[in-house]
Design a protein that fits this description.
Strand order of the largest sheet: 6-8-9-11-10
Shape: flat
Strand content: 15-25%
Oligomer: single chain
Distance between the termini: 88 Å
Number of helices: 21
Radius of gyration: 35 Å
Structural class: alpha+beta
Length: 696
């Protein structure tokens, strides 16, 4: 009977990726300044990751993965035992091993063979590890427990899977196959006396039992780990050389229905492997316990699962359906108010609260911590710094900050470009830093936190900062800026995001083509976010990325301009005021700013922005003060509608070029309301204010 292992292999690939990521992070932690604090536990974590991958790969017959992880595990075991130090060379070897393991696992899972280059790399790594194992280490500690001490000699295993093992998705053969790769001269005798003429045959039941003899110098703990995944579904009796005597082996007869057949199988198996003095048969007790596979008395340790893997596509469908439920709820609520039935209106208010709770709970399902993304850059920083001959330490702050998984996937690429640029252009070489009175090791900080309904990601370095005069000169040379046009410092800093812009004198494998930072700006803006740059020459630079918390469903604030309804994220609204109560009509004639509590506040009339010629009375206008990051501005609207649960719908490629608009939503009445881009509106208001000031 063939067993479909596709689901199990998919799980193995997913779990292996997580283990390899944890292994890489642990290896990089060993290089950090705090490595000595938890070095022993870190090395143990690396060992557990390699050993688990090896064991699982052995179950599926992924021999290339098994051979590589086996030799890597052997060397690491010496490191754990204190016989060898984890040098930087050995650490680099394990990082390369992790990369190749990832490739080999994906190939094996898709039933493809490794390329010639990968096989060459595998042979080289195996040779390097083998050369290390040939170096004589320190003497073994003889005071440890016999269970963990290697014991050279002939071992015996009685392996009796229970009747339901196949139904549980476990095939006994891969465990024996994996053991064969771990030990020498394995001999196996298969016993099937559980299937008799009187036994009704069930094709989904297991009737096999196995007796095994082999030679190894491994410890009992290592042998037990081979059967780690099946130990709760089988009897596994392991007898090391010091207990591998006929009388001890014969005790395993209690697990077999026919003791006489067991003795015959055992005698045939052990004839050539055990000394003659141990082959005297012992009597089988009349009160021997019936086989465990028939009684099912073996106690299994129960594990309570605390996590559940769910496909991202299923979550996306759930969010879409919740969004449709929000729209339908708004429509039903509107109809309830039209009826004037108080009982119905009250019931709809309760339903609306429940829908809101379901919405919040659904969105939280897709929220993940950004620390996992940040940790991936440890390897990037290490490799790029080594390639450039620089010393750089990565610091991570706010790793537990949560954001939508959609953002995690799309923000990874922009962060990659920024980090590589910071190391290449920002952080100086050790000699330059020493000459400038700085520590030779540069500091690169990744920081994440929530602020005003947005998630903020900061990438800061303590390098040489941006040379604004050089940036401006290169921008003028490339025709990006008119020579007569004066720019503020922040505007000059943002020129690094222009397509094709680069201050590098030569193109390298890391930078110089002027495409990386352009990708950063484009990707961030596609997520309705913004990018800011703050730099001080000689002290370093900081790039600030602001993103909304989610792309799907938001708490919105609705208002009317002309005959249309518009929505902005509620988190961006600071306060709402009647315009005539703040400033008189004559004071803002031909102006686009007001003095609000001694603060100059730029504002923009949305009627003017949208090209609506007809104006309304000054006393009917309202002022919505919005904030995005550190910037504030006012929006002058016709009337306020209040809070509104907003399901964000994309506008499509036809509307990609429109400024100040980020999407649309469907109202309860069925009408479409435009969602405005608050950051773009604020920048527009500030630009208009600054241009007006320059004229005066």
């Amino acid at each position: 009977m063939s067993v479909d292992l596709s689901a199990a292999i998919t799980t193995f690939v997913s779990e292996s990726k997580e283990l390899l990521a944890e292994m890489e992070n642990s290896l990089l932690d060993l290089e950090s300044s705090e490595a000595s604090r938890d070095q022993e536990e870190t090395i143990n974590a690396i060992f557990r990751a390699i050993h688990t991958i090896k064991g699982s790969a052995g179950l599926f017959g992924f021999d290339y993965v098994v051979s590589l992880t086996h030799i890597a595990e052997t060397v690491l075991d010496d490191v754990r035992g204190g016989n060898r130090e984890m040098s930087k060379t050995l650490l680099s070897l394990y990082l390369e091993t992790g990369d190749l393991c990832d490739e080999l696992i994906l190939l094996a899972a898709s039933q493809n063979e490794p390329s010639a280059q990968q096989l060459t790399q595998l042979a080289r790594l195996t040779e390097q590890f083998s050369a290390i194992t040939n170096i004589v280490g320190a003497p073994q500690n003889t005071d440890t427990d016999s269970e963990t001490q290697p014991q050279d000699g002939t071992w015996f295993i009685c392996f009796v899977p229970n009747e339901n093992v196949l139904r549980n998705g476990l095939d006994p053969y891969p465990f024996i196959h994996f053991l064969n790769n771990e030990v020498a001269s394995l001999e196996v005798a298969t016993n099937f006396t559980a299937l008799t003429a009187d036994t009704p045959y069930d094709p989904e039941s297991c009737y096999l039992a196995f007796l095994m003899l082999f030679h190894t110098s491994q410890s009992k703990d290592v042998i037990e780990e081979v059967f780690e995944f099946i130990k709760n579904d089988a009897v596994v009796e392991i007898l090391p050389p010091d207990r591998c005597q006929y009388s001890a082996i014969e005790d395993c007869a209690k697990y077999f229905p026919d003791p006489a057949q067991f003795q015959a199988t055992l005698a045939k198996l052990t004839q050539s492997r055990l000394p003659a003095r141990l082959l005297e048969p012992a009597s089988i007790p009349d009160d021997a316990e019936p086989p465990a596979k028939a009684t099912g008395k073996k106690k299994n340790k129960l594990h309570t699962s605390k996590t559940l893997r769910v496909e991202a596509m299923k979550l996306d469908r759930l969010i879409d359906q919740v969004g449709e439920m929000v729209i339908t709820g708004a429509r039903t609520n509107l109809l309830a108010h039209e009826t004037g039935n108080e009982t119905l209106i009250e019931a709809m208010a309760l339903l609306e609260r429940l829908v809101e709770n379901i919405r919040d709970s659904s969105l939280k399902l897709r929220m993940v911590q950004i620390g996992e993304t940040f940790n991936k850059f440890k390897r990037v920083v290490r490799d790029v710094a080594d390639e450039l001959g620089k010393e750089v330490e990565l610091n991570i702050v706010g790793a537990d900050t949560e954001l939508d998984k959609t953002f995690v996937e799309k923000v990874s690429d922009p962060l990659m470009h920024i980090i590589r640029n910071a190391i290449d252009h920002g952080i100086e070489s050790p000699e330059q830093r020493q000459a400038a009175g700085k520590p030779t090791c540069g500091q690169l900080t990744l920081k994440a936190y929530h602020d005003s309904g947005s998630i903020v990601i900061e990438i800061q370095d303590d390098g040489q900062g941006l040379d604004q005069s050089k940036i401006l000169a290169r921008a003028i040379e490339n025709g990006l800026v008119n020579q007569d046009h004066s720019l503020q410092d922040k505007e000059i800093n943002l020129l690094i995001f222009e397509p094709g812009f680069s201050t590098a004198t030569a193109v390298t494998s890391i930078s110089g083509r002027g495409v990386g930072m352009d990708v950063v700006k484009r990707n961030v803006e596609s997520l309705r976010g913004s990018v800011e740059v703050d730099s001080t020459k000689g002290l370093g630079s900081k790039i600030i990325i602001r993103l909304p918390l989610t792309l799907s469903i938001i708490d919105g604030f609705m208002f009317t301009v002309g005959d249309e309804d518009y929505v902005i994220p509620l988190d961006t609204v600071v306060e709402c005021l009647e315009l005539h109560e703040v400033v008189s009509e004559s004071d803002i004639q031909d102006k686009n700013y007001i003095n609000l509590r001694t603060e100059v506040l730029p504002f923009i009339r949305l009627r003017t922005l949208f090209g609506i010629e007809q104006q309304i009375e000054h006393t009917k206008e309202s002022l919505v003060i919005v904030q995005f990051g550190t910037l504030r501005a006012g929006l002058v609207v016709d009337s306020l509608q209040g809070e509104f649960q907003t399901v964000v719908k994309p506008l499509g490629r036809l509307f990609e070029g429109l400024k100040c608009i980020s999407g649309a939503t469907i109202l309860g009445s069925g009408k479409v309301a435009i969602i405005l881009d608050v950051s773009a509106l604020i920048r527009t208001a500030i630009t208009m204010y600054e241009s007006l000031e320059l004229k005066h």
